[in-house]
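Hi Y.,

Following your request, here is the sequence exactly as I used it, all 96 residues.
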Amino acid sequence: MEALFHDGSLVNVIIALTVVEGFALALYHRITGRGVPPRDYALNLLAGLFLMLAIRGVLTGAGWYWTASALAAAGIAHCADLWSRWLRQKRDASPF
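Below is the corresponding structure, written out as C-alpha cells. Let me know if you'd prefer a different format.
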C-alpha cells in the first residue's frame, strides 16, 4: 500500500477518475440538458487537477519547478474560477 503513495500511482488513479468524472458530467449535460453546465465547474476541476499534479510531483521527486508550476497553474485556475463566478453573480443581479 505504501508503494502506491511513493510512486504516485494512487494520485494517477485519482487524476484519471477526476477527468472521467468531468467528461461524464459534460456528456450528461449535453445529452439531457440537465445537470451542471461545464462552465460552472470546469475551472474548479482544473484547479483541483493541477493540485493533484503538484502532489504527484512531490511524491515522485519531480523537480521543484514542476511542483511550483503546477501550484501556480492551480492558483491561476482558482482565481479565474472566482472571477468568472463574481462576474456572473454581478451580471445576474443587475436589473438591466
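Residues 2-93 form one domain.

Thanks again,
Q.
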